[in-house]
Amino acid sequence: MNITASLQTKNNIYQVVLNYKDINGKRKQKWVSTGLTEKGNNKRLANQKMQEILTNFKEDLNCPNSKTDDKLFTTYLKEWLLSIKNTIEENTYDSYKVIVNKICDYFEDKKILLNDLKPVEIQKFYTFLYSKELTGNTVLHYHNVIRKALQTALKLDLILSNPADRVERPKKEQFIGSFYSQTELNTLFTLIKDDPLKLVIYLASFYGLRRSEVLGLKWEAFNFEDKTITIKHKAIETRKDNKRVILLKDKTKNQSSYRTLPLVDDIIVLLKEHQKQIDENKKLCGNSYNKKYLDYICVDSLGKLFRSEYVTDHFTLIMNKNKDTLRKIRFHDLRHSCASLLLAKGIPMKEIQDWLGHSTYSTTANIYAHLEKDTKNKSANVLSNVLTFTD
After folding, report:
1. Predicted TM-score (pTM) of this structure
2. In terms of C-beta distances under 8 Å and separation of at least 24 residues, what long-range contacts does 217-225 make, across chains too?
3. 3 state SS of 310
4. What are the tens digits of pLDDT across the range 83-104?
5. Rounded to the nearest 10 degrees, how much is the dihedral formed by the CA atoms of 105, 109, 111, 117?
6. Of 68, 112, 230, 266, which residue is 20 to 30 A from 320 by alpha carbon distance?
7. Residue 59 gets which letter from DSSP?
8. Interval 157-182: pLDDT, tens
């Protein structure tokens, strides 16, 4: 392997720049500090240091397992997971932990060293996941975690290349969500007018809110004077120490999810009624009323914040109870229903992106492009007006 070294300075410190190609023929560069400043005879000393660094680097490349010959791939994965714990959201960490544990369950008996991990072994793992009838989207989650972990190993010089880059990447399957029409939504609203979840369903349907966004709504999000609602909080449920806990976050899923929308009169009326009901519940419950969630909108009669799992289960109960009247959809499909209704009424896709808080236009377009009937009808009409198939 042809490796060259040169001496450069960075922040007044002599640095050795190593240029080489990895086992895939991809050009790489590595910077190593000599610890010597630009003064006196240090340049001569830095050149000597460069030769030592170059020699040691060549030895490491010829014996890549010398530093990690006792580190199993599974051991590294667990160490990597702990190393990123404080850099990601708690619920993200919890989902990573589940994935890493399942990866380790598969590889544990194989005793594969980090440096010996080959693309074929990763590909076999994906084949195993598919054999368990997991979807392509789920397998892609496993791939992303494996690749991310190995990318860190590459940056730390624990491996010379990322084997996950050379496997057949699982294909993402297009998801087409169910949605209600205008008539179906109005029927749903009529059926739940006395349901404890009615405000949650109204807000999720009208504003196309994610479950975490609607449960995270605080009274401060509503400006009754300016008639605006600002989506800036979220409430998520995760598992911690084998117990389900609610995480309250004063931030949204991403920067685009933070958005301010118009507060219409009908919603104001519902909120005022809900506020009166909460005051009545406080008087009835007295000291038994939960004081922890006084700032939040979506609470039950005892003042407890609705849990994500409860919302999902109770919505399913509503669907089952009214199965002769309504098609069965998921709670998240209320968000899809909002988007489809906006599209049906001619609202441009870009405006729908802003309304839903998608981070990119492509996200909105990929999910809802199949619903743009009016645009496709216009195209069909244009072509039929200019093309003649019969005399």
Report:
1. 0.64
2. 217/296, 217/297, 217/298, 218/295, 218/296, 218/297, 219/295, 219/296, 219/297, 220/295, 221/297, 222/263, 222/271, 223/263, 224/263, 224/268
3. helix
4. 998 888 888 888 899 999 999 9
5. -60
6. 266
7. H
8. 888 889 999 998 898 776 667 889 99
